[in-house]
Specification:
With about 270 residues, the chain is α/β, with parallel strands linked by helices. It has eleven helices and eight strands. The N and C termini lie close together (about 10 Å). Bound molecules: 1,3-dihydroxyacetonephosphate.
């Protein structure tokens, strides 16, 4: 049985004081040994103080990004080893907010434009540093409506995991985050999520062997809320949630964790 993982991606939200408060409330809600993995994923600048805030608790830490090289002239970037040094277990890679432009109307341009090749290099760097990468994949609405979902998932999985060897793959986590469901309040239906997750697992099986793929955790992300978490987590190939907005309130995040536990019967 795969151990579910619920992680809260804070994105560029909260300040230090509210982050600390959230962790205190979360610790109180969780108890000593929850039957699943729970992580917070704060902005990089808060990783060290949040590592202190979660110390001696079951709450684990993840970073939202890292760079591919181990050191050098990369102003503004942090290496996988630096991320690891803060106490992180996980690092999110290839989030759609880094793959895509922020929006054509953004006067600043706001383009990260990360492609699969860069994400793959980051992924290998993260694994080498002893981190568990949470590699995000997912189609846009246009791609879904155009019947391209599986082709997009194929391309992203193969491209973003290029260079990951079968023996390293056990430390991977994949997050299926349909772009149209992120921050929109419109989650994928359980049927849509299950179909994509099963497809992703099959694809991972072709890459790393079915035994390995069967053990890999695939999180769902995109408008997960206390109200929809149970139905989503009942899907057999959905192994947890990557939560954005609803992870910023301890009570909602705790309800999501509880819902996952209930749905999985653990
Ligand atoms: P929301 O839960 O706010 O839709 O964000 C999902 C997400 O992008 C998590 O990485």
């Amino acid at each position: 049985m795969r151990r579910p993982i619920v992680a809260g991606n804070w994105k560029m939200n909260l300040d230090l004081a509210s982050g600390r408060r959230l962790v205190l409330e979360l610790r109180a809600a969780l108890g000593a040994a929850p039957p699943l993995d729970v992580a917070i994923i704060p902005p990089a600048i808060y990783l060290f103080p949040m590592a202190r805030a979660v110390a001696d608790s079951p709450v684990m830490l993840g970073a939202q990004n890292c760079w591919r090289d181990s050191s050098g002239a990369f102003t503004g970037e942090v290496s996988a080893a630096m991320v690891k040094e803060t106490g992180c277990t996980y690092v999110v890679l290839g989030h759609s907010e880094r793959r895509h432009t922020i929006g054509p109307k953004d006067p600043a341009g706001g383009v990260h434009g990360e492609n699969d090749a860069l994400i793959a290099e980051k992924c290998v760097a993260a694994l080498c540093a002893g981190l568990q990468p949470i590699v995000c994949v997912g189609e846009t609405l246009e791609q879904r409506d155009g019947g391209e979902t599986e082709a997009v998932l194929d391309r992203q999985i193969e491209g973003s995991l290029a260079g990951v060897t079968a023996d390293r793959a056990k430390d991977l986590i994949v997050a299926y985050e349909p772009v149209w469901a992120i921050g929109t309040g419109r989650n994928a239906s359980p049927e849509q999520a299950q179909a994509s997750h099963a497809y992703i697992r099959g694809r991972l099986g072709r890459l790393f062997g079915q035994g390995t793929a069967d053990d890999l955790r695939i999180q769902y992300g995109g408008s997960v809320k206390p109200e929809n978490v149970v139905e989503l987590m009942k899907c057999p190939d959905v192994d947890g949630a990557l939560v954005g907005g609803a992870s910023l309130k301890a009570t909602d995040f705790a309800k999501i964790i509880e819902g996952c536990v209930r749905a999985k019967g653990i």
